[in-house]
Amino acid sequence: MSPSQTKSNQSHPLAAYVCTEMGAALAREVIGASGASSGSLMGGGLSGAARAAGGGGHTQMFLTELGELPVDMACDNVVELRKSGAGVIVFGEDQNINTYRALRKAGALEYFPMPVTAQDILSIEISLSEPANLSRPVGTRQRTIGVIGTNGGAGASALAESLGHLLASGRDEGCRTALVDADLQFGSIALDLDRAGTPGLMDALEAPDRIDRTFLQATMDQVTETLSIYSHTLDLQSDIAVAQSGWPAMLERAKTEFATTVVDLPRSLILQDPMVLHALDVVVLVVPAGYAGVSAAVRLVTHIRSVHPDVQICLALSEVRKDAQLPPKDIAKALALELSAVLPRCDAHILRAQRKGKTVAELYPRAPYAKACQDILSSITPDNGSRPSRKGLFRRAFK
């Protein structure tokens, strides 16, 4: 193999970094058929591309070969390349689905296990980064908040619904909120809010790359101008494993279209697919004040931190159901977390809200429960990072 030794600081719309003869042949075909006004072919694979990216110049797209690189190092290289604003596509011999998920989570537009053709690569739809604040108004904070109850009946769904309502309480782009029910078997958000289910959620999970604003408007329940809902349950005999595998990518794509995404997240899902946690910026852990709740919370916090150490965890103590009523400070100490809020018992308010198909915070905005929800939102550290915007087909990116 004798790839072109073009200097790393030269500008090219498309740069390929390969490490095998087969990879070089594939890259030549892609460059030739892409319509790029210029292109370069170099050695070093994915790691070589990451090293070259620091040398200046501008590249719109990196086509890279994984080679023998360990997955964790490969992900670090993808992150470095994405910082330049360029798109990254990876191909390699590794057939492991976890490799695919890890690289996509790190920011790769796609990972292709070999064998793959140039047409396969050229046919995908991609997202290229634009300079910060061009795709969204200045100051918009894009976050995904996962609400997880440590025990059934802790009030996690009711909290997610109220947080969604409060976040969407406005009319500008910064208030655009998605409320997503991630329980495909026993989810209740649509029923709680007296809304129709959204079967389009299954299409979003099966093909996350299709998600853009038009797709979401067609498949989500538009409750208000700023609040949209995904909530759909499947037959209990359905095999949901394939659909559930789409959650990480689907949530990442939804984040590009909403200022905030609130996810009612069943604890079983983060155990079955830990990659879901990497799609979250914040976890709100809803813990009943009893021994079983605290025990489950300790185990879940350990799991969450082992999978995603950087995610912010907010502790919401729930008094929605009666329990052993352990002192809040003792629970916070056991979990090594600061207490964001105590959700007070409010049976009458919850009952009336359920009957009216409203959230508790919407129906009783001045009640202690709504104040506790506001305290939770106030405790969440904002994330000002910008996200990529949709640009169309790969071959069109260079024309």
Mind explaining what this structure looks like?
- This protein is of the alpha/beta class.
- The chain has 2 domains: 12-124, Response regulator (Rossmann fold), CATH 3.40.50; 143-379, 3-Layer(aba) Sandwich (Rossmann fold), CATH 3.40.50.
- It is built from 17 helices and 15 strands.
- The protein has helices spanning 21-34, 45-53, 71-83, 97-106, 118-122, 156-167, 189-192, 200-206, 213-219, 241-244, 247-255, 267-272, 291-307, 328-335, 347-356, 360-363, 368-379; strands at residues 12-18, 39-43, 59-65, 87-92, 110-113, 125-128, 143-149, 177-181, 221-222, 227-230, 260-264, 282-288, 312-318, 339-343, 389-393.
- α13 (291-307) links the parallel β12 and β13 (312-318).
- It is elongated.
- The relative contact order is 0.13.
- Residues 1-11, 127-140 and 383-393 have low confidence and may be disordered.
By DSSP (H or I, 4+ residues per run), the number of helices equals 17
User: Rough shape?
Assistant: elongated
- What is the average of the pLDDT values? 83
Q: What fold name stands as the CATH topology of the largest domain?
A: Rossmann fold
Ranges with pLDDT <50 over ≥5 residues? 1-11, 127-140, 383-393
Report on the biggest sheet.
8 strands, mixed
Strand tally is 15
| CATH hierarchy, class of the largest domain | Alpha Beta
Gyration radius, rounded: 23 Å
How would you sum up this structure in a few lines?
With 399 residues, this protein is α/β, with parallel strands linked by helices. 38% of the residues lie in helices and 20% in strands.
